[in-house]
Amino acid sequence: FVHSKTRQDLDFLHKAGIAIDAQGKIAAIERDAQDLSEVKARLLGKLGWDEAEVDVTEAAEGQFFFPGFVDTHIHASQYANAGIFGKSSLLDWLETYTFPLEASLKDLSKARRVYSRCIRRTLSHGTTTATYFATIDVAATNLLADLCLSMGQRAFVGRVCMDSTDMNPAYYRDASAADGLEATQQTIDHVRRIDPGFDVVSPILTPRFAPSCSSEAMAGLAELHRQTGLPIQTHVSENPGEIQLVAQLFPESDSYTGLYDKCGLLTPRTVLAHAVHISEEEADLIALKGSKVSHCPCSNTCLTSGSARVRWMWDKGIDVGLGTDVSGGYSHSILEAARQAAMVSRHVAMGIEQEKERERVKLTVEEVLYLATRGGARCVGLEDKIGGFEVGMEWDAQLVTLGEVNDEGDVHDEDDDHGFVDMFGWETWDDRVAKWLFNGDDRNTKKVWVKGRLVHRRK
Ligand code: GUN
Ligand code: FE
User: Fold this and answer.
1) E strand intervals along 150-244
2) How many CB atoms are located within 10 Å of the residue 16 CB?
3) Using an 8 Å Cβ cutoff, are 12 and 5 in contact?
C-alpha cells in the first residue's frame, strides 16, 4: 500500500493488510508482517472477524494499492469535446465549442451517452471522486447524479447557473436569476431523494463564473449555501480577457476574487478553478476565507491561460487540488494532471532568476500525488473520509500494476499489458512510483473501489 503521509512524503506499507468493513470503512491496518497469512491472522484476531466471511484481494509482486484520485474540477458535459480546442482561448472557446455542446445535452439520450462514458472512463483511470459541472438543464443534470450513484462514483454534481445576457448566448442561459435558483433547488431535491445522506452523490452550487452570472444569482446561491451548507464551485482568474471582462461588467468590484467575496461566495466549502492570474491580495483573501483552489494544468496549457503557481498558493496557506477541467483540458486522467502539474511547476521555475527560489517552486513526485489524493480530498471537504489509508476512512482505492518480477529480475508478465511502464526489477519503491506517475495510464489500473464497492475492473 502506498499513500501520502504528508505533502512531502509517501508512506510505503510493506507486507501489510487493510480490513474493510461492510460499510466500506477501513476497520484495521496491519503492516510489516512475515507474509499474507500472518497479516490475515493479525487483522482477524484484532477485529474478531470470521475468516469464512472475509473476501481477500491480494496485490501481487509488482502491484500496489493507492488511494483513488480526486478530480476537483471536471465538466462531464464537455467530455465529448475532449481534445477539440484548436487554437482557441477561453472566451472564444466557450462560444465556439462549449456552449453548443452543453446546450445540446438537453436531449437526454445524448446526455446519457456522454455522461455514462465520462463516468466509466474516469473510473477506469482511478478517479473515485469527481466534482462535476453538468449543464443548465435540470433533467440532464439529475441524470448525471443518477448515473454516478448507479455506477458507484463518488461525485459532486452541479447544475450550472448562468443567467447573464452579456456573456451567455440566447440559446443557452437561465431565463432569470430566480429561474436559475429554482432549477438548482430541483437538482438538490432530486439528489436528496436518490441519496438522502449525500453519502456518494452530493449537489454542489455552481455559478459558472462571474461573467455568466448576475450579482443577484451569485448572492442567491451564497444565501442557499448559508441555508444548506452545500459546497460551491466556480472559475476564477483563468485568462486575461476574462479578467478584463469582469472588471468591465462589475466596475464596483476591486478584484475578480473580491467580487465573489462581496457576493458571499468565498467560503471554506468553495472550490475555485484555475486562479492563474490572482494577485497577492486575492490569494490572501482566498486563504483568509479558507476557500480552495483546483489547479488545472492541462487546461491552462491547452487554452493558453497561463501557469498557476502552486508553491506560492501553498505558501499562502491555500488548499490546492487537481482538476482535469475536461474539455478545457484534453485529458480526463488525474495521473496526467499530476504529471502536468509537475511540468508546469518547472515552467514556472524557468521564469525565476534566483536559483534557490527556482529550485523551490518545482513540485516533486510526492507533492503532485498528494495533490491528486489528499489535496483534492481537502478541497471537497472529505479529508476525514478519503485520500489516504487510515482507520475510519473509506475504501476509495485503486490497485496499480507495474508488472511482475521474474527470476532474472526482469519484469515481464506476457499476459499483462503494462502500457508505457517498463520495469527492470532493480527499481526502488520511490523509482517505481515515479515511473508510474510519468509513464502510467489506465492500463496500469487493474481495479478500482469506492466505499468498498468494486466499481471498475480492467479486462
Ligand atoms: N469559465 C467559464 N466556463 C468555463 C468552462 O466551461 N471551462 C473553463 N475552463 N473555464 C470556464
Ligand atoms: Fe472549467
Assistant:
1) 154-158, 160-161, 201-203, 206-207, 232-236
2) 18
3) no
What spacing in Å lies between the alpha carbon of 13 and ligand 2's midpoint?
36
Q: What is the 3-state secondary structure (H, E, C) of 284-344?
A: HHHHHHCCEEEECHHHHHHCCCCCCCHHHHHHHCCCEEECCCECCECCCCHHHHHHHHHHH
Give the span between the Cα atoms of 105 and 179, in whole angstroms: 19
Residue 166 near residue 211 (C-beta atoms within 8 A): yes
Give the nearest ligand 1 atom to 242 CA.
Answer: 1
Is 142's C-beta closer than 6 angstroms to any atom of ligand 1? no
Q: Is 299 touching ligand 1 by the criterion CB < 6 Å?
A: yes
- In sequence order, the β-bridge partners of residue 294 are 273, 321
DSSP string, 58-115: ---TTEEEEEPEEEEEEEGGGGGGTT--TT--HHHHIIIIIHHHHHHTTSHHHHHHHH
Walk along the chain (459 residues) in steps of 10 and give the mean pLDDT of each run.
98 97 98 96 97 94 96 99 98 98 98 98 98 99 99 99 97 98 98 98 98 98 98 98 98 97 98 98 98 99 98 98 98 98 98 98 98 99 98 98 77 75 91 97 97 97
* Ligand 1 nearest-atom number relative to CA 329: 9
Ligand 1 contacts CB of residue 184 (under 6 A): no
Q: Which domains does the chain have, with CATH numbers?
A: 2-66+389-457 (2.30.40.10), 69-379 (3.20.20.140)
Q: For residue 371, which of 457, 313, 447, 432 has the smallest C-alpha distance?
A: 313
Burial class (CB in 10 A: 0-12, 13-18, 19+), 219: middle
Q: Is 301 in the pocket of ligand 1 (CB under 6 A)?
A: no
Question: Max alpha carbon distance in the chain (Å)?
Answer: 71
